[in-house]
Amino acid sequence: MLYLLVRNVLRPGVVNPTHLAKSASVTKVTKRSMVHQEGLPKLPVPPLKQTCEGYLAMLQPIVSEEELEHTRQLVTEFVSPGGVGDRLQRSLERRARKVDNWLSEWWMQSTYLDCRMPVPVYTSPGVILPRMHFQDRQGQMRFAAKLIAGVLDFKQLIDSDTLPIEYLGGKPLCMDQYYQVLSSCRIPGPKRDTVVNHTLGTTPPTHITVVHNFQFFILDVYNSDGTPLTVDQIYMQLEKIWNSSLQTNKEPIGILTSQHRNTWGKAYNNLIKDKTNKESVRAIQKSIFTVCLDAPMPRVSDEMYQSRVAAQMLHGGGSRWNSGNRWFDKTLQFIIGEDGSCGLTYEHAPAEGPPIVFLIDHVVGYMRRSEMVRSPMVPLHMPQKLRFNITPEVKKDIENAKQNMNMMVHDLDVRVLLFSHFGINVPKQHKLSPDAFVQMALQLAYYRMYQLCCSTYETSSLRMFKLGRTETIRSTTTESSKFVQAMDDAGTSNTEKVALLTKAIQLHRDNTRKAIYGQAIDRHLLGLKMQGITELTSMPDIFMDTSYAVAMHYHLFTSQVGAKTDCVMCFGPTVPDGYGVCYNPMEEHINIAITAFNSCEETNAAKFSRAVETALLDMQALLEQTALAGR
């Protein structure tokens, strides 16, 4: 995630799988044939006029009339025949004909690999799983062993090409991202990072990385005959790792990966000058995934427990706790605390939310049905401890990383709201979209706190198209603005308020549909801008305009991440004075994670959390009172 004040690109999206999964059917196939991927349509380039009209409509509730009038003039010039926009549009259409997806490479580079902000908090989401009831190392080891076996069971779907193909409205979805999350890792560079996937080599990795007490181990998870270790065998290997890592005076080498990317790029080059260090780093990068066995975190009240765990998943809690017990560049890191906290964090560049959510649901299902199978007592090799030679230069880099991580931890305010009053059942009873209902509650909460409407981002998916990633649903509309202003107006009747709410929700649904079908405005604007950077000596005026800066400054960055598992995803805000909001709507409750920065006096995650809860309850009361009055 990034500060839009620092760099003028879009924040990585946590895709909205509920726009897919809740209505998508899944078909089991015997082969993930190339026919499926090759048969997917290419991402379209929307008409220029359509996008520019949508852009002006989006700006209306968030900029002044004076600014809007100036932008209208710029847009008129931009779309005029033979104008800059017209030329860029034709170039973009040519690009779309030549490549599989005109956006995907640009998206990966501009949104992730060019981003120089730290990976934790700023780009990598965390996922909180339900609290486990173990309170000791044996429970932690047993849970970790089952979880590892569950992920290997998911990997079998990948390796055997039997991963279910998802469909939406009878149309197949791109499955490419599912094949990018295992055995992959981000590699820091001095100015731009890369992502390496090791599954495509002649000898795909057969080991995972386990980290405990800041010490990294290679754990081979397959027997010599190619069968995965049983839960019982994994448990025994984890016990060996625990006993070999009791020393706590080791340097937390993993905390280096939490740094600003330029800083980490330099430290990385220092680190791998040493042959032993280079081999150890390569072993981590090549591993199928990483398991972090965390020390217990400070105790908090039951009310604050989920919020504390959310912070632990995002950044580890600081150098005194578990931030050094990570390798943040690794695509998948499962985190299991000795105190029962569990979840994961994932590096965002290779994939969006759906493969992660699917994997979580699969692993949780596996663990529920998995029994400890007694294994034949075949002696297993001791897991290999990865060695690091800490030079004075590396030591200095580690101390610097500790200080920066501690500042980041101190600055991030995380609140998890377990909204227990109702779930998707209430909006469904009133024939309203549950996602749009929650989005309108966020709009209402923000308006009540700040007395204005703000630029809001909700993530949608472009997986209907080959190599599709994400698109933006703009939740702040003229209709949502009318609703939030009317909600607390004593002069507006409840019937009128419900009519305004219904209209706002319907428009949000229409915008969602446009986004899914590749007809929304944001990725097209990004494409035109990137094409402009490629072709032109100066940036077109439309992208240098105040209105564009306001539109891209997301005070509310939101995503609905629906899972069958009762979990919640979280991520940091995209701007210094904004909120990150992620929610998982279940049938009778809603899990919501809200983040803000303590360094901003205007934002307050706890206050906004209370405002969201009140907004949801007030909207429910409005619907029920109006329905009763109409009988």
Would you write up a description of this structure?
By secondary structure, the protein is an alpha+beta fold. The chain has two domains: 18-33 and 54-103 and 420-629, 2-Layer Sandwich (Chloramphenicol Acetyltransferase), CATH 3.30.559.10; 116-412, Choline/Carnitine o-acyltransferase, domain 2 (Chloramphenicol Acetyltransferase), CATH 3.30.559.70. 43% of the residues lie in helices and 15% in strands. Helix 7 packs across helix 12. The radius of gyration is 25 Å and the shape is globular.
CATH-scheme architecture of the largest domain: 2-Layer Sandwich
Shape: globular
Q: What is the H level of CATH, i.e. the homologous superfamily of the largest domain?
A: Choline/Carnitine o-acyltransferase, domain 2
CATH topology description of the largest domain: Chloramphenicol Acetyltransferase
Work out the helicity level: 40-55%
Instruction: Please indicate the count of domains.
Output: 2
Which range does the strand content fall in? Answer: 5-15%
| CATH level-1 class of the largest domain | Alpha Beta
> Strand arrangement, largest sheet?
12-8-7-9-10-11-2-17
Separation, N- and C-terminal Cα atoms: 49 Å
